[in-house]
Amino acid sequence: MILRVEGGGITLVDLDDLTSLSAHILGAATIGDRGRLEDGHVWVSTQTLLELAGARAGDQRWRGGFDGMIDYARRHGWVDGDEVRMHVVGE
């Protein structure tokens, strides 16, 4: 799953890839109040990710995979409270 940050806003793409979570920040775009940038990573709440996932968040099978991805991140120290850390990659 990719959090895509560009001039027009923030979207989630590759929603079916629940084995990876990264942020692509295009140009001079900023994450604004939807998260925070810190040391080459973006921190975003899981609630924000679910909101951006739209109707997919209501799909029980997809939600199980999403929760599994967040649990994996938690076991590796990439979750702080309700925020998950995503590595920023170039686009």
General description of the model:
- The chain is an alpha/beta fold and 91 residues long.
- The chain has one domain.
- Helix content is 26%, strand content 34%.
- It has 2 helices and 7 strands.
- Strands 1, 2, 3, 4, 5, 6 and 7 form a 7-stranded mixed sheet that branches.
- The longest helix has 16 residues.
- It is globular, with a radius of gyration of 12 Å.
- The relative contact order is 0.23.
- The mean pLDDT is 91.
Q: Give the overall shape, derived from the CA principal axes.
A: globular
The topology string of helices and strands comes to: EEEEEHHEE
Decide which structural class fits the backbone: alpha/beta
Q: Indicate the proportion of strand residues.
A: 25-35%
Could you give the distance between the termini? 15 Å
Helices and strands in order, then pairings?
Blueprint: E1 2-6, E2 9-13, E3 22-25, E4 36-38, E5 41-45, H1 46-53, H2 60-75, E6 79-80, E7 83-89
Parallel strand pairs: 1-3, 3-7
Antiparallel strand pairs: 1-2, 4-5, 5-7, 6-7
List keywords for this structure.
globular; alpha/beta; seven-stranded mixed sheet
Provide a brief overview of the structure:
The chain has helices spanning 46-53, 60-75; strands spanning 2-6, 9-13, 22-25, 36-38, 41-45, 79-80, 83-89. Strands 1, 2, 3, 4, 5, 6 and 7 form a seven-stranded mixed β-sheet that branches. It has one domain (2-89).
